[in-house]
Amino acid sequence: MARKMGEEGNPSLQSPLIPSYEKSLESRGGEGLDNVDWKRDITDEVKKQLWLAGPLVAVSFLQFCLQMISVMFVGHLGELSLSSASMATSFAGVTGFSFLSNQAPRLGMGSALDTLCGQSYGAKQYHMLGIHMQRAMFVLLLVSIPLAVIWAYTGQILLALGQDPEISSAAGLYARWMIPCIFAYGLLQCHVRFLQTQNIVFPMVISSGFTALLHLFICWVLVFKSGLGNKGAALANSISYWINVVLLAFYVKFSPACKKTWTGFSKEALHDVFNFIRLAIPSAVMVCLEFWSFELLVLLSGLLPNPKLETSVLSISLNTCSMLFMIPFGLGGAVSTRVSNELGAGRPQTARLAVMVVVAVDLTVGVIVGSTMILVRGIWGYAYSNEGEVVRYVAVMMPILATSNFLDGIQCVLSGTARGCGWQKIGAYVNLAAYYIVGVPSAVLLAFVLHIGGKGLWMGIVCGLMAQVLMLSTITLCTNWEQEAKKAKDRVFGSTIPIDLAS
Length: 503
Hints:
Radius of gyration: 22 Å
Number of domains: 1
Mean pLDDT: 82
Number of helices: 18
Order of helices and strands: HHHHHHHHHHHHHHHHHH
Low-confidence stretches: 1-36, 100-107, 497-503
Structural class: mainly alpha
């Protein structure tokens, strides 16, 4: 018999999309997974995750669309404009976005909030969510300053790395016009983590959807009507990110749903900053090691024969996989929230069930998406370019991309589990081994030694993904969930600030 979603009916903008359920696996007389009604528990867990993952997929896709729309507009200005904008976007991801948070589409320092806010919410230490978010905003804004300086010298850095001079110069100009993005980006992802860990996701869908629609108009004006060309696309990114930040900030401040978790700015956020950094740095390293390996493909493609073609196709491939990755990314965000909430609430077996459910859902989705990619391989390239050579090359790449997307989906939900548990340091070691001992060397071998070209670069990363999935699966299967719940309790109450000080 299906359970009701809550006493007050359907969720609204002022309430979490996922109400808490009074009954849990542990509340039934302390029963474990072996003695419960599996069908009912699995059904409940699937409903919770889909209600959470669906909007998160939409939010992730809509936010990612900002950069994708900009690249598409620029692509119709010519091959040089496309390759330079793609190179600049990749460089910005490597040196900036991946450090901070969740678009592009991985998580960096901001993913520490998945653990801290999620477990605090599960333990009903609501006032700590606002403190954690303020602390994250302070740290990420400070980190953004040196990253902005790096962006200002993008052209010179790319030239020093041996990239084509013409592409490097245009990419440097594009990156300089994107500098305002990085500050908005960090603040945006702090708000996203803050809301997501409370299961409040529908308002983010509205703000992201409105911003994406507005971004189409802004890009059209700045790219084609203002005479700015590719510089206009970069400026459009900055404007749109700031619009999204302002919308979510207003919601957090004025929504009754955040009344308990946001009590205003507090000097207490400056206390215990180093404990946040100790979790945030492994979070950034875990993400950057993976993200850099994908972006490195674009940089390496510039060293292949016919670099404009290789760079354009590899950039299209990366954008395609990043867009499709939003589905498992939403599932990964859902399981991260579910695991962190349940561990914080002291329900380890429910957290374990959440992991089992999300893996099964992801495998199903991965097969469907991969099959669709193969079916549309002959026409997909036209979305980015009118060049016949580019379109044909993209068609050859699609089966390889389908394989990598399937494996990337599995690692995404397992990485979401790691964030929910606070395993960022372990994840960093896994990614280091998977991508830099297996993936990147394999890519270089296949592309430059065996002369397979751009296809070889991506096939090498597939090898790294296989190693990553194997290691994360082993770690997850060997997890002691009762011990993880104890660690979550120690983490939450070890950093708790008394309510009278936090108000």
